[in-house]
Amino acid sequence: MAKQDRAIRTRNQILESMASLFNEVGYDAATIAALVERTGLTRGALYFHFASKEDIARAVLDEAVTREGLREQAFKVQEWVDLGLLLAYRVPREPILHAAIRLSVDPKARRLFGTRWPDWVAVGEGFLTEAKQRGELLPHADPAVVSRTVVGSWTGVQLVSEAMSEDLDLAEEISVLYQLVLPNVVTPTVLARIDSSPYRAERLLKEQSRTSAVE
Amino acid sequence: MAKQDRAIRTRNQILESMASLFNEVGYDAATIAALVERTGLTRGALYFHFASKEDIARAVLDEAVTREGLREQAFKVQEWVDLGLLLAYRVPREPILHAAIRLSVDPKARRLFGTRWPDWVAVGEGFLTEAKQRGELLPHADPAVVSRTVVGSWTGVQLVSEAMSEDLDLAEEISVLYQLVLPNVVTPTVLARIDSSPYRAERLLKEQSRTSAVE
């Protein structure tokens, strides 16, 4: 068991270090040699976990579509908002999630592995379709279109906010995005009960870790 | 004069070919050797116009913040919307504009040259500030915040729409973005007179070419 724990830790260390390299220098320039230098692991140890750089990139992208911290809420549209708020809180703190975005906008990596945006759009559409069936959305709001537009907007707000010279907080920027979009998607009575504040994600994640500690 | 025309044409040809290379293989992999092969020009001819690949990338980014097709309108907020609609029409048709986005999301190119997003945010903020002074915006709409959020959203909608498997039209996707955001930014009476249709940009550009033909 201890041996297995160590193996999982090493695998995570490889993923995180390679993700940081992708973030810093881009997919093409991130090499196994640089990874060896950064982790201090032998090539043998690396190749025990991953066959190649491509293999690591795929594993990074596999982590991208995550529901960690998500809990059932009174409104489905709240769960849809929570998905985006949780990711906004985590991306600046977790190199692997950040690298998944980086790989999606890199021409070579995108050609090799595609992106996880279609998956995100499908997940969002699922929540919004349920929300619509429950009468939470305005009649003209099309779940597929709203989901796709917000996945795009979310991504661009992240990219632009990290390029601006001011010190912008992604959780706040994404909160503003939802405030701009929600009144045109959600019925007014539901809107009044939706929490899109930048502090919500941190609270959700703390609740989750408390619950798992009890279990 | 004819000689000067030829020089301008050659410069444009270099810019467009290098822009296409940036789009296809990314900044790092786009080389002067590939450019020579693609254009059929000699290295001498290239270096007459640009000192280096970096120099070409800078020239590409200099073309990014463009007001081509923009005309004075009854509402300042219409001019702000027109900026985004015109760009959505042009980006899929003009490799140089497309490459400016590509370079902005490339980690190495971004480190070398920065991005033009802060310029776009400033331009948008200018239009929205004037719109606000004229009473076109809702009281809570902050020109700086709205401009930044929409520049981000615009960029991400472009990136995600070209990565989706469906054949999405950027002008339509951006039109949807404005329809989602405008009701929460613009007063209802002004909103009723704002055109954010996907066909508007093409019409504006045709009007412009007619006018310049007359001038």
From TrEMBL, chains A, B:
The keyword DNA-binding applies. Residues 31-50 bind DNA. Residues 8-68 form the HTH tetR-type domain. SUPFAM superfamilies: Homeodomain-like, Tetracyclin repressor-like, C-terminal domain. Keywords: DNA-binding, Transcription, Transcription regulation. Gene3D superfamilies: Tetracycline Repressor, domain 2 (1.10.357.10). InterPro entries: ArpA-like (IPR047923), DNA-bd_HTH_TetR-type_CS (IPR023772), Homeodomain-like_sf (IPR009057), HTH_TetR (IPR001647), Tet_transcr_reg_TetR-rel_C_sf (IPR036271). The keyword Transcription applies. NCBIfam families: ScbR_bind_reg. This is TetR family transcriptional regulator. It comes from Streptomyces spongiicola.
